[in-house]
Design a protein that fits this description.
Elements lengths: L8 H4 L8 H25 L13 H24 L5 H9 L8 H24 L7 H6 L13 H22 L10 H20 L5 H8 L4 H6 L2 H28 L1
Amino acid sequence: MSETAPVDAASTTSTPEAPSTAQKLTAEVLGTFILVFGVIGTAIFAAGFAAGEGGLNVGFLGVAFALGLSVLVAAYAFGPISGGHFNPAVSIGLAVAGRFAWREVGPYIAAQLVGGILASTALLGILSTGPVFDIAVFRGASTGYDVLSPGGYGLLSVFLVETIATAVFLFVILGVTSAGRAAANFAPIAIGLTLTAIALVAIPVSNASFNPARSIATAIYGGTDAIGQVWLSIVAPILGAIIAGAIYKAVFDRAAKLSA
């Protein structure tokens, strides 16, 4: 008479499979879509920066909160799948810091650009059946200097604010996602609040990008000025992210390895 061997309960528990590349890239598309749709949609339809412009008059404060909240909810929804970058500068900065594989940077950036452009195109479609169909609103939502700066700031001021703000943003991301140093479940809250804070500083100066995908998504519909100045909103955030990634890796990660 044969006897069936007992089944080991531990052997029947399966560990969750790592997300596939397709899942990661789809998460980046959707997360970037949410980010751009939320912040640019607020700027176009609800900001009403001056009396008589219509909208809900949420102003700069409303746009800043829309940016932070959009990133917060997207990070909670898709962060566990892709890491929740939603920003080419973030992907590059994390790679510089040694937290992300360089081979994945290109596909992530492509996915982020697709998500951003899909969002601005969707907003254009919504705008098309409104009382006034004028794509000039995308010019007002585009980032830049001089004529594109809400406060009339020049190239140097815009370059500095975009570089410094993105570096601050990356420092926070690297800090709140460091293993053993922070509560991971609260990381999206810290990241979203940081974006809100730095946006309040940068919106009057540059219209607050910190994200090349967001800048490109609005510039393609923003006219010649927006297209002509979009280079700054690509270069400055990436520079800020590289600076933050390099400093964090050299100072904090190195110190952690030495103390281990």
